[in-house]
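Same chain as my last thread, 828 residues:
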Amino acid sequence: MWRRVVTLAGIIGLAFPLWSAETVLAGRVVNDNGTPVARARILLTSCASSVLLEAITDPTGTFIMHLETPGEYTISAESHGHFQLRERPLRLVAGVNEISLVLNQLRESFESIDVIAPAADLDFSKANSEEVLTGTEIMDIPYPTDHSLRNAMRLVPNVVTDSAGGIHINGGAENQVLYTLDDFNITDPLTGRFESRLSVEAVRSLQVSSGGLPAEFGKGSAGAVAVKTPTGDDKFRYSATGFVPGVGDHKGIFLQDWTPRANFSGPFIKGRAWFSESLDAQYFQQIVDGLTKGQDQNSSWRVNNLVSGRVNLTPANILSAGYLADIWTARRTGLSALDPIETTADRRSHQMFLYTKDQMYFSHGALVEVGFAENQTFGREIPQGHGLLLLTPEGERGNYFVDATRRARRAQWMANAFLPSFVGWGTHLVKVGVDLNRLGYRQDAQRTGYENFGADGTLLNRVTFAGSGRFSKSNFEASSFIEDSWKPRPKLLVELGVRQDWDEILRNTTVSPRLGVSWTPRSETTKISASYAIIADATNLEAFTRPLDQYSLLTSFRRDGTISGGPGATLYAFGSARGWATPKYQNWGVSLEQRLPAKLYGRVNYLSRRSQNGFTYVNTLGQIAAPPAEAAQALGATHFDGIFELRNLRRDVFDSVEIMVRQPFGQQYEWMASYTRSRALSNAVLDLSIDQPMSILKNFGRMPWDSPNRFLSWGRLPLPWKDWALAYMAECRDGFPFSIQDEGRQIGTVNGSRYPLFFELNLAVERRFVFRGNRWAGRLGSNNITDHRNPNVVNNNIASPHFLTFYGGQNRTLEFRLRWLGSTEKSP
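reply #2:
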């Protein structure tokens, strides 16, 4: 009784000013462990007149609906990540009617009961573009390396993974996206990329936001990725996947991969405290074509564990916490047909990420949350030897030239508040927040060098390194924002926001306005939205460490082996002018969304991104007075070959048009198809650093992940037999671009050539069954079932007799997966 009184106190407070003669439905939506569900869609239908009313819950899970008459109604509720509540009968009387609705968190359905996952539908509570994948969709759709959350992001139409496995959203680099885990920043403190690994079973939902992002999202001009994890409920649940090792038959039988995962969740105290535990172990062994047997293998293993918990201190005070640990060891990384064992490096890394957050709910729909998170990373690169790396037209020889240890850390403090909604020329819901980050980085790196050889085997030049590679760098960031979701009319939403960002390195206060508009015609089957935002990326700590690192010395040779010049020094510097501007992007987005017959959902989305004042290193030698000869001699050089200074000269361009159709049906069955036409250009395509062995002459062109045409479709479909399903994924796109080189120099336009057309079709058949009192799901399928050649390595040296020979890529593979979904016995 006490819980119900506290839960509805805010609703009664909101409805109190209303005349008692008016019929009002005031309610709150929570999930099965009492947590309020924000942005849930409420549908109320009159049994007498079939009039349909709609409402969206606020951050406290509250909604209010004004009705013309009392009577008999049916109510439905749905939210991403939860099962639908469908057409529950409801009798309303004149005055204020209070109700509490419970949505169960979305989990895989096994029993033959009517559990329907929410459809992809119009979301009237936002104006920017958003795509959501549930945890069950991530588990159901077949894709290579299906234990990896990074690979699962390929299922989103505006996300591509490059040849090296990097994630690129809306044409941006990995460090131009804000990645969060349960609302905390989990990007790598040094690189800004998503380096974290966690089990896909530990994911409740993955949300990708694009376009003119609301003011609460900062430091991500290309978008924001929010990973939500489950916290358990009052039922003990457990499952295990991948405990049967995979066997490969390529150049003989071998243990190819083994990815055992286990999950366990349940209550500490029923009705009050819950936990979730996800353990993921991975072993991989790769056989590389083009290398001799015994010299063609590399392997890696990884273990990560995510444990989280939630405690309802009171019905209006929820405390949550989590801890992620990740350990990875990989031998012979970089092994390929052009890069034999001696050129590879052994790598080790580990990560520790912990967080805690306290949410306090107040009357009149107010919410305050405060939290702290810490992210620590460690990386180690160990070459096979300490000789020079030899760059030949036939590939690399010698040893990898970097031996390094790197450590990075971020401490984050956040506080957000949703103020009580109020009326003034419409309804307003205001959110304010503050975010503080302390970042630190330490490095100890030593580099040997590399040599470039011509087609006839003669030495062209040698690059060695000098100076200390040991240093540290820190930064402090402070951000704040205010945002108002204003509804001047029931069918019109205006999102107005402004964000402030400051950091210790740039010492600039950046003000970023945000605007979003969404309009729904009377039919309520169409939504038209537009958004605009100025977004500042996070200051990349890695870019500001290069002047602190080692410098290179280039010595050139004649055909007879004698020195023709050098050594010439190339170094990176901040320059004399330190008045950097803050890099900004202008994002425009326009979207048309439509409900179609048979539960079809269609969307046409346009996105434009333009940068200004982006950071890039530019060779200023020749633009400024050359330093005196004494300065070069002090560095062990005869002259300077290059002095690269950090300048605000980078310009990026991205445009895309996306057409998407999605349809759910039955029990968690659905399909999706999309086509995206896009372009990604920059005048700083390659990120220049001392570790870049190719000399870049012109750095304007297509980004390495540019894919002008991309078709993507996936789905899980029922088969005629009970408990059988067919899952598929199909992707077809233009090959990624690459550059041509000769004697260590770029030839022609950067990224002026392309890999062949990429096509992949994955099919899997799954059956769910009960055996010896336990639930199981067995899957048999094939990745790249057509065995289409999709290379990811190319000989791009014009002097090589094997010039433009392609290597690598995934062959057709047979996949088997057996999942244990727990006991059929009910938990006590």
